[in-house]
Amino acid sequence: MVHLEFFKPEELAGLSYTLDEDQMRFTATVQHALMNISKRDDSDAFPVTIFEEGSPAGFFVLDFGNDKFELTDNKDSVLVRSLSVNPQLQGKGIGKTAMLKLDDFIRNHFKSCDEIVLAVNQKNDSAYHIYLKAGYLYEGKTRIGRSGPQYLMYKKL
């Protein structure tokens, strides 16, 4: 069963999986995402561990900082970034289930948040379809990211 918890340093060993070159174009490793948070001394970013059957299986960051304003004007929104699932566990619906469970996670921990936003590379077809299946909407807005054009997606809570 998939569940979400705020990241704890002792989970890092279980999240030290390697992403292939293709996936590295679209997301950051857990270590890199955590390093970015610590470099910015970012109190607006909350790393989250995705668990499958009680073991760390994936990771993402909830970012309440100003970067979200590249995707929305909503001050009560959160940006999902650096989502990854251990490659050995991919294809089992863990990412989709995590994104479905994210709604309640945010409602429980961040009461004023009423929208989730994210950007997904247009070449990352599998991630794009996972987000669609999890209820995220794409209404034609795009931007250029580090690896090319990205779809800007959102979900109202």
Structural commentary:
By secondary structure, the protein is α+β, with helices and mostly antiparallel strands. Helix content is 25%, strand content 36%. It is built from four helices and seven strands, in the order E-H-H-E-E-E-H-E-H-E-E. The protein has a seven-stranded mixed β-sheet.
Number of helices: 4
What is the CA-atom radius of gyration, in angstroms? 14 Å
The average pLDDT value, as a whole number, equals: 93
Element-by-element helix/strand order: EHHEEEHEHEE
Q: Cα distance, first to last residue?
A: 23 Å
Shape: globular
In total, how many beta strands?
7
Cross-sheet strand order for the largest sheet:
1-2-3-4-5-7-6
Unreliable runs: none
Largest beta-sheet details: 7 strands, mixed
Helix amount: 25-40%
Structural classification: alpha+beta
Strand content: 35-45%
Provide the descriptors you would attach to this structure in a database record:
single chain, 157 residues, alpha+beta, 7-stranded mixed sheet, 4 helices, 7 strands, 25% helix
